[in-house]
Automatic annotation (TrEMBL):
Gene source species: Fistulifera solaris
Localization annotation: Mitochondrion inner membrane
Keyword Protease: yes
Annotated protein name in UniProt: Mitochondrial inner membrane protease subunit 1
Keyword Membrane in annotation: yes
GO MF annotation list: serine-type endopeptidase activity
Start and end residues of each Peptidase S26 domain: 113-165
Length: 215
């Protein structure tokens, strides 16, 4: 999970209660599709508002208030959260970022489609109910869902909230897209949100506060 987390020597705090009881938009693909379409408005509109923003962009102009931290703590499991889970194929724990929830669609390359036994000429993998699509923040050096597929939610240990050690680093982990790193643009998977039907995606970014120039 570099650069968000170092491989060794860091102590983190996990939230284990709320993250196991709810997901943003619902726990099933059908419920998340209905919720997403309601949020978007009319189904026939040609624009899909996409709120995903990299955590590196959030840190520049949107400091997390105390109320925002409490909302994060009590909120359902969402895309952009960091989670600690048990590895699906071997003993041990891993820490990854959620890029997809049930009902979301992952655009796969040909090798991945063959690995996951999709029908010929099908490149979209729909994340099934009870599963998450997890990826590391350094996509060029990460073993994640691109290798072993969606991860069962029952393997989730908790949501990563705070860094307790070392204290010199930022303590609170932000919810958002993976950080923007040099030479890694496009290396992460493309995940289409539940309910998306080919509309033009418009990136929705929180407004940046403006400052007045001193005369």
């Amino acid at each position: 999970m570099y650069p968000t987390l170092e491989p060794f020597g860091e102590i983190i705090l996990l939230e284990k209660f709320w993250c196991r009881r709810a997901m943003a938009g619902g726990r099933t693909g059908k419920s998340r599709i209905r919720y997403a379409q309601q949020q978007q408005g009319e189904e026939e509109q040609a624009v899909w508002w996409e709120p995903k923003v990299s955590v590196t962009e959030l840190n520049r102009y949107q400091p997390l208030s105390l109320w925002g931290k409490l909302q994060h703590f009590f909120s359902p499991l969402s895309v952009g959260d960091l989670v600690a889970t048990w590895h699906p194929h071997r003993p041990g724990m891993i820490c990854k970022r959620i890029l997809g929830l049930p009902g979301d669609q992952v655009l796969l390359c040909r090798e991945q489609a063959e690995r996951f036994h999709l029908p010929p000429h099908q490149r979209l993998l729909v994340i099934p109910d009870g599963y998450l699509w997890l990826e590391g923040d350094n996509p060029l050096n990460s073993s994640d869902s691109r290798d072993y597929g969606p991860v069962p939610t029952e393997l989730v240990i908790g949501r990563v909230l705070l860094r307790l050690w070392p204290i010199r680093k930022r303590a609170w982990f932000r919810r958002g897209e993976p950080p923007v790193l040099p030479h890694t643009y496009g290396a992460e998977s493309t995940v289409l949100p539940a309910g998306y039907q080919g509309q033009m995606i418009v990136r929705s970014i929180p407004p940046q506060p403006t400052t007045r120039n001193k005369q």
